[in-house]
Design a protein that fits this description.
Layout lengths: L7 H6 L20 H9 L2 H6 L1 H14 L5 E2 L6 H5 L5 E3 L3 E3 L7 H5 L6 H4 L1 H14 L5 E6 L1 H10 L7 H9 L1 H25 L3 E6 L7 H7 L1 H11 L5 E5 L6 H5 L5 E4 L5 H8 L4 E6 L8 H15 L4 E5 L9 H12 L4
Parallel strand pairs: 1-4, 4-5, 5-6, 6-7, 7-8, 8-9
Antiparallel strand pairs: 2-3
The protein binds coproporphyrinogen III (CP3).
The site of coproporphyrinogen III has 23 residues, from strand 3.
């Protein structure tokens, strides 16, 4: 096993002392990088995801070109519905589409929850290949979507602002909803364990749409499944939970088996620390759109962000994924500002 030369991220997740906070950016692979855009012209999205050599090349781009302290494997959260037997298409510039959604009990019964190591073997191959190519430069992050977020896509069949169909399903077919959420949870746990075996040093669970839920509904539809995943993985690797928009859940989640919590920009660092009692490592929470500000402004805001969170038990990141319109030198300025931070 190669020893990590830069293990800032893992130390921050273990609550160990660091010289400066580690930095990476959600959705750092792809989207805004010119070399990625070139590959996008040659291969369609799922070809890029399913070809380990291409996924590895894309994963390494932000490490080589932006200087982040971690690599996140190039893949997508929607490979899980695919592994469960559903078709997922990606219409360029339109987003994901599932032509056949989950409607009935028979649809849920037909879903596959086993064999994910084989059905998603290309992800595991991409992780091992990336791990060797990194040669211990930085840790490698594996990931999955949270059960509620995956449920949303399976019911709705595409992105939504309100997730009304998913909510209607949850509010009218309670037992079936929990059956489906449990099936997603079971396969996700097996998938994340396989990712660790293949070389992931840490894992992030993206609950991108948990903020669509009220605090009471989050407790029923999202939280139990997030906790189940964190518990199941606690001996395998540190887990970061990212319940976007669900600031109200931070207190409960800080008392879980997770090692880190992702914070979006609608919560102040002070409030996030207060809600979590400074017990757990926090990650975030720069507004991705603020990367459009002039570079000196970005650098100033990054320093203020670190000062507000505190430099320990902290991972500098955005509050959600970087968007395609961010100039590369602005992304680099964000990362540089963290690296230049001195305690
Ligand atoms: O972080 C990384 O750089 C690793 C790669 C990654 C992708 N998707 C690649 C991708 C990760 C971590 C994801 C997670 C993901 N996928 C989430 C959770 C994170 C979040 O942003 O909330 C969600 C909700 C999805 C579902 C999804 N996949 C959507 C809504 C879209 C279309 C819109 C878009 O551009 O994100 C995708 C496609 C997708 N996944 C792209 C990339 C680079 C864009 C397609 C392309 O480049 O051709």
């Amino acid at each position: 096993m190669t020893l990590l030369k830069n293990d800032l991220l893992l130390r921050a997740l273990r609550n160990e002392k660091v010289e400066r906070p580690p930095v990476w950016m959600m959705r750092q692979a792809g989207r805004y990088l010119p070399d990625y855009i070139k590959l996008r012209e040659k291969y369609d999205f799922f070809t890029r995801v399913q070809t380990p050599a291409l996924a590895t090349e894309i994963t390494l781009q932000p490490v080589d070109q932006i200087g982040v302290d971690a690599a996140i494997i190039f893949s997508d959260i929607l490979v899980i519905p695919q592994a469960m037997g559903l078709t997922v298409l990606l219409e360029e510039n339109k987003g994901p589409v599932l032509p056949k959604t989950i409607i009935s009990k028979a649809d849920v019964d037909a879903l596959i929850t086993e064999g994910v190591e084989e059905s998603l073997s290309y992800v595991m191959q991409a992780l091992s290949l990336t791990k060797s190519a990194l040669n211990g430069r930085v840790p490698l992050i594996g990931f999955a979507g949270a059960p509620w977020t995956i449920f949303c896509y399976m019911i709705e069949g595409k992105g939504s602002k309100t997730w009304e169909k998913a909510k209607q399903f949850a509010y009218t077919q309670t037992a079936l909803t929990h059956e489906l959420l449990q099936k997603i949870t079971t396969i996700t746990i097996a998938y994340l364990k396989a990712q660790v075996k293949a070389g992931a040093d840490t894992l992030q669970v993206f609950d991108s749409w948990s903020g669509a839920l009220s605090p009471a509904d989050f407790k029923v539809l999202a939280q139990p499944y997030l906790l189940q995943i964190a518990d199941a993985l606690k001996e395998d690797a540190p887990v970061i939970l990212f319940p976007k928009g669900s600031w109200y859940a931070l207190k409960d989640l800080s008392n879980s088996s997770a090692s880190g919590l992702g914070i979006d920009w609608c919560v102040s660092p002070e409030m996030a620390r207060e809600l979590t009692g400074n017990k757990i490592t926090l990650q975030g929470n720069f507004d991705p759109a603020k990367l459009l500000a002039p570079i000196p402004e970005i650098k100033k805001s990054v320093i203020e962000m670190i000062n507000s969170f505190g430099a320990q038990k902290y991972i500098a990141n955005l509050g959600h994924g970087i968007t395609p319109n961010i100039p590369v030198d602005h992304a680099r300025a964000f990362v540089d500002a963290v690296k230049e931070y001195s305690i």
